[in-house]
Amino acid sequence: MADELERPGGEPVEPEAEPHLPSPTIWPFAFAGGVALLLVGLIINWILAAIGAVLLLVFGFLWIREATSEVRRPPAAAPPAAAPVSELAVAEEEEEPERYPRSVFLEMSTLGVGALIGGIVTLPALGFMVAPAFVGQEHDEVDLGPLANFPKDQFVITTFNSKKDEGSVGRRTAFIRNNGLKNDVPSFTIISNRCAHLGCPTQPQGLPGKAKDVKGSSGTVTIIPVASVSGFQCPCHGGAYDDEGNRTAGPPVRALDRYEFLVREGNLVLGKPYSVGKVIGKSADAKIEAYRVADPGQHVDGPEQYFYPPKVWIP
Ligand code: FES
To answer: What structural domains does the chain harbor?
Structure first.
């Protein structure tokens, strides 16, 4: 028995210490927190994503360093040759030291396989989630023709090509109301017909007049005046909007999208579309909660907005 051994001279021999086990560590949890912060940050905010990436790298490094500490530890110095204690101790010294403990190998293998599976599962989903934010979605300006085609305080249905080279497939529709001047600046309400639920084409609630084709630098623009528009209706699932595009009924999650515009050489020119949370007020006095253009069905305000890219205010 080892605990009964004595050195020559009566000095007792210490029993062999328990084998070293890695101590519990918080690094894996901190690493997982960094990954979670990075993923959430990619959706919500680039600053959060950067913090997550830093945490991920730091705690990943600390975790790996701790997990491999057994491997990197220098071999123990041989005991002095002049201190043979017993036959048992001599036999232990002669054993070949274990260069790569099996427990460390298993731990690293498990981590590697787990990381591989996690990457295979996560990366494609991450790509589909993040890539659209980097895909170019530029819009051509569209010349809709002279301001005289847009009578004051009346909606017109305007159909046009959003890109010059697209045929009838690229036709878009906007509901345009000339609000007159505000502080000597022309004011227009330009509402997209794309429903904010699933994208069906909405219709104005009012009596349509006679269609007129206007040829301009952006191709043919079709203009249909509509009398007394009280709002807009979606035929697909019953979505309804008021005459500022605010949702009033049905499943849409926000107001109808709008278009930026400018007046150039007496013509109304359509700019980029943008999404709208809600509109407060009416016509030229309306205050528009504007966001970067979002897909149908996406929330742009309320708690749900944090599951989508951050808002960009358009003055
Ligand atoms: S697409 Fe308009 S209500 Fe569903």
So the answer is: 2-134 (no CATH), 142-307 (2.102.10.10)
Return per-residue pLDDT of the chain as tens, 315 residues: 444 445 555 555 555 545 555 556 788 888 888 888 888 887 777 788 889 899 989 998 988 888 887 777 776 666 665 555 565 555 555 666 667 678 888 888 888 888 888 888 888 777 777 666 655 556 678 999 999 999 999 999 999 987 766 666 778 999 999 999 999 999 999 999 999 999 999 999 999 999 999 888 888 999 999 998 999 999 999 999 999 999 999 999 999 999 999 999 999 999 999 999 999 999 999 999 998 888 899 888 877 777 765 544 444
User: Ligand 1: which residue has its CA nearest to atom 1?
Assistant: 198
Q: Whose CA is nearest to atom 4 of ligand 1?
A: 237
Closest atom, ligand 1, to C-alpha of 199: 1
**pTM reported for the whole predicted model:** 0.59
- Site residues for ligand 1, CB cut-off 6 Å: 195, 197-198, 200, 234, 236-239, 250-252
Residue type, 242: D
Which residue out of 236, 248, 256, 295 has the highest number of ligand 1 atoms within 8 Å of its CB and is therefore the one to mutate? Answer: 236
| CA 113 to ligand 1 centroid distance, Å | 45
Three-class SS state of 292: coil
**Ligand 1: nearest atom to the Cα of 196:** 2
Cα–Cα dist 262/226, whole Å:
23
